[in-house]
Design goal:
alpha+beta; 3 strands
Length: 84
């Protein structure tokens, strides 16, 4: 797997890709709803995913308010805190 990413993308030592996105909500949550407002003025939750060279998800984290940035969400995951 690791060799595939390094060969196809020239990212030495890369073992996967991380990205976050917002999942829109129809209504504001009743508890601290304002924190779920994203930069597009929509209520949403943040979901973060990691995939391997075969485009399979190997890690998913969700539930953070959309006002939280991807870097913050990633830093709170077990994947970040315990990489081994």
């Amino acid at each position: 797997m690791r060799i595939g990413i390094e060969n196809s993308c020239d990212f030495i030592g890369c073992v996967g890709f991380v990205d976050g996105c917002d999942i829109n909500l129809q209504y504001a949550p009743s508890y601290h709803g304002e924190t779920y407002m994203n930069r597009k003025n929509k209520y949403a939750i943040n979901i973060l995913g990691i995939c391997d060279a075969d485009l399979r998800f190997t890690y998913v984290s969700s539930g953070f308010p959309a006002s939280m940035g991807d870097a913050f969400v990633f830093a709170t995951t077990d994947f970040f805190r315990y990489p081994h």
